[in-house]
Write a structure and sequence with these properties.
Shape: extended
Largest sheet: 5 strands, antiparallel
Number of strands: 12
CATH topology of the largest domain: SH3 type barrels
Low-confidence stretches: none
Strand order of the largest sheet: 7-6-5-4-8
Distance between the termini: 75 Å
Helix content: 25-40%
Radius of gyration: 27 Å
Strand content: 15-25%
Length: about 325
């Protein structure tokens, strides 16, 4: 390849990269473009980028905001762009989504996303600093790691489609006692807790919001009926209220308690660094003891967690929480 041909090829590649950085709404500044190109190993001046954009504007539906420094974007009437390219930062994001969130996406969406996952792997085939991020970041569980249980793939796909399409699900579910029961469920959400994925839903008999472990579904079919939603249900409020901490009494919703813990100050580093609740208060009782106060849902998860401290917790209030913690510990 001649020098001129090589320069032309480099210019085309640079301009292609530049176009891929532009969005359809938000203005993209030339400084951002310069920094993004530098991460791809393309080091050029702001003036070169500005010249490229002016040339591209003659052939593509892009525009600038006439300000200094200039911002650029695709025009509102431009057709949706599907450039077969991905920056290193975008590729890393797609690869981390594939590794950590793929099992929480409906199969129909996964099929749609697979070409992007493949493109991400190809984009990171050459070694660079951004590529190394994937090899240097891991997510590990805070508790004892467990191998995820086997999930019936057909049932999982049906449940995900029911949630996606907002349709009822007719299913066969195996409870803790190994007894199989048939249900008609209204899916409301999915939550992963540790190695287990839970479906948040209501039964069609008008029951309260419940959680069903995905691996206990033996079969499922998608109904034509629209799912029924509880009035004002909010998944975040449900979780914050202890819905995934599991209730002490399965027939009652989790209640909030004013938890008080007495500990040696040197044993309470966890509470200084990570609060139990937004209203947590730590009070010095004497030169070595402290009291931690926080409003929390009274759940079995709270009980298990408090037991993990062993004899480091000198006193627990209220008494009903203390009785649960010391009952079997």
């Amino acid at each position: 390849m001649s020098t001129q041909e090589k320069e032309t090829s480099n210019s085309l590649y640079r301009q292609w990269q530049t176009l891929s950085l532009l969005g359809t709404g938000k203005w993209t500044g030339t400084r951002f473009i310069q920094e993004s190109l530098a991460r791809e190993g393309i080091n050029v001046s702001l003036r070169t980028i500005q010249r490229d954009l002016n040339q591209l504007a003659q052939r593509f539906l892009i525009e600038n905001n006439k300000e200094t420094p200039q911002g650029w974007r695709w025009k509102s009437d431009a057709p949706i762009q599907s450039l077969p390219h991905m920056t290193s930062s975008q590729a890393v994001t797609f690869m981390m989504v594939e590794e950590h969130l793929k099992h929480l996406l409906p199969p129909s969406l996964i099929d749609e996303m697979n070409p992007w996952f493949d493109l991400a792997r190809r984009s990171l085939s050459s070694q660079n600093n951004v590529r190394q991020w994937v090899n240097r970041v891991r997510i590990v569980p805070a508790s004892q790691p467990l191998i995820p249980p086997t999930i019936n793939q057909q049932a999982q796909q049906t449940i995900y489609e029911g949630l996606l399409q907002d349709k009822q699900i007719e299913c066969l579910y195996q409870g803790r006692g190994r007894e199989e029961k048939s249900y008609i469920l209204n899916p409301l959400g999915l939550v992963q807790k540790g190695a287990i994925i839970y479906l948040i839903c209501t039964r069609n008999d008008g029951s309260d919001v419940q959680t069903f472990a995905l691996h206990r579904f033996k079969a499922a079919t998608l109904s034509k009926q629209r799912a029924l939603h509880p009035v004002n249900f909010d998944i975040d409020r449900y979780i914050d209220a202890g819905g995934l901490g599991f209730r002490i009494d399965s027939n009652k919703p989790s209640e909030l308690v004013q938890l008080k813990l007495t500990m040696r100050d040197y044993d309470a580093q966890t509470f200084y660094e990570s609060q139990l609740s937004k209203d947590q208060v730590i009070t010095n009782l004497n030169h070595q003891d402290i009291e931690i106060q926080a409003t929390v849902p009274f759940t079995s998860q709270l009980v298990w967690w408090l037991r993990s401290f062993g004899n480091k917790i000198l006193k627990i209030e209220p008494i009903e929480v203390a009785q649960q913690v010391y009952e079997e510990s």
